[in-house]
Amino acid sequence: MSISPKILPELIDAIAATINENADEITELDQAIGDGDHIYNLQRGLDALLKQKQELAQMDWVAAWQKIGMTLMSTIGGASGSLFGTLFVAMSKFGRNQQINPQSFAEIFSQGVESVKKRGRVEVGEKTMVDVLVPVSQSLKESVAQSMPLSEVLENVKRAAISGMESTRDMVATKGRASFLGERTKGHIDAGAKTTQLMICTTADTIESHCES
Ligand code: ADP
Ligand code: MG
Prior knowledge:
Elements: H1 8-21, H2 23-33, H3 38-57, H4 61-76, H5 78-95, H6 102-120, H7 130-145, H8 150-167, H9 191-212
The structure holds adenosine-5'-diphosphate (ADP) and magnesium ion (MG).
The site of adenosine-5'-diphosphate has 22 residues, from helix 3, helix 5 and helix 9.
């Protein structure tokens, strides 16, 4: 089965709503070990995508990922802007000339995550969004390799995102602003890991609701 970019307006609406609903918690997390601006940065990016959503729906995935990536890079700002942007621009690059299906998407997403790691000079365990992106990518690859039904693939992705987000609580930040606080970052979930988890879980839920209807 394949999912068309026509899902994008609904997906962007759902993601923006989830981020808005969790705004207070996200701000608290970023205030505890960052500078508190992550929510505003992300909302700026999502506002820009909300304006482009109908245009994006008319594109193919490769063109849509490229536009989403460029928009996020130019609107979010902060450390997270270039990283979220890199994810989508890299997915566009690696997706070129491919049919997009769950198998190819798992590989394309994994290449996107590798590009984020390179861009951020970051590995798993450093208390960042990468602690969500990497387990999600691994789960996706394993699930599609076993030809699981899409609903199970999505359930596994959500579980990986949530446990990845929670894993950041006990980590010491070694990248980004939070790294200035060193050991004092222990006990707090990373804000970027939280928003990444929320966006991934909302994406999975939106795709799932389409498959049921
Ligand atoms: P800033 O830190 O510049 O204020 P944001 O507040 O928008 O930017 O984003 C902070 C988030 O970005 C962190 O919570 C973390 O998840 C992520 N982040 C910061 N630096 C890196 C990095 N080098 N690699 C991966 N993710 C990073
Ligand atoms: Mg910040």
